[in-house]
Amino acid sequence: MEEKLTVTAAGGRPMHFEGTEHEVPFLMGMLAGIPGREAEDAGFVEHSGALYEKMTVDQYLKFFAGLTGTMGCLDSAIEQMHLSGLLKKKISRCTDGEKKRIRIAREIAKGAEDYFVFNPIAFEDEESKRIILGWMETFCDKNACLVTLSLSHRDTCICPGDHYEITADRIQCIDPEESPAENSENPELPQISKISVSYHEKNFLFNPEEIDYVEANEGRVFVYVKNEQYHGDFRISDLEEKLAKFGFFRCHRSYIVNMQKVTELVKWTRNSYSLRLSGYDKTDVPLSKAKIQELRSMYEF
């Protein structure tokens, strides 16, 4: 599996993994195994840790570009991460999203071609999130490698590229390409009145219209109602059939959403979309590229 993933990574398509920080050495090793690339040349963008916070953004980037003798890459780093308006700002005053952009710009300024980014969009700053996702998408068009690791299933699925889940004994693709004909037929579906779920060893019954969205993650299915997470003893495909008559849409291989609760379609990049729900201001539900046209046809937008 590792050899196969290394070959895929070398092909230039971004690869996004959901896992724990213990997977960092494995994924960094995957970058090191790409033929014709040197491991020490890859850019490593950490999630947190000390920055030189008394420096301004400009001072920080110039310092690292000077260390590696790559001052010629500095302007590109500033442009790619949209930092021109922040150059005189002290790093200590930057938001978490801005700090992530600074970390990425540091590696660009050092002349990196391939990148590993840990928790790339794990912050609330939407402008920074959009900038970083747009930067990720450029890797679809060039012969360079981008690998990310997110602790969040949603963050992994929103990133443009291929998505994988790392478990104790395997790596599996979260959203393999689906045939356009898949799920195209819509037979008469069974009518249901309640969905049975569990929470803290108690069982609850919800009407379908009460459910906000459904998530499949690590082999389990979770139902969300008013920001509370409940566990369901069923497969997401079974629930998809049951909920279809109630205005639910399979927006991603791992997600079903109640369209009555959707308030906004968020376009991050040309290939990265999410849905925003009423009452979930800090939670975006991924919308896969394969489902965008289907959604447009259904809701005429």
UniProtKB/TrEMBL annotation:
GO terms for molecular function: DNA binding; phosphorelay response regulator activity. It comes from the Bacteria. The keyword Nuclease does not apply. Transmembrane segments: none annotated. Keywords: DNA-binding. PROSITE patterns: HTH_LYTTR. The keyword DNA-binding applies. Residues 195-301 form the HTH LytTR-type domain. This is LytTR family transcriptional regulator DNA-binding domain-containing protein. It comes from Candidatus Mediterraneibacter tabaqchaliae. The lineage of its organism: Bacteria, Bacillati, Bacillota, Clostridia, Lachnospirales.
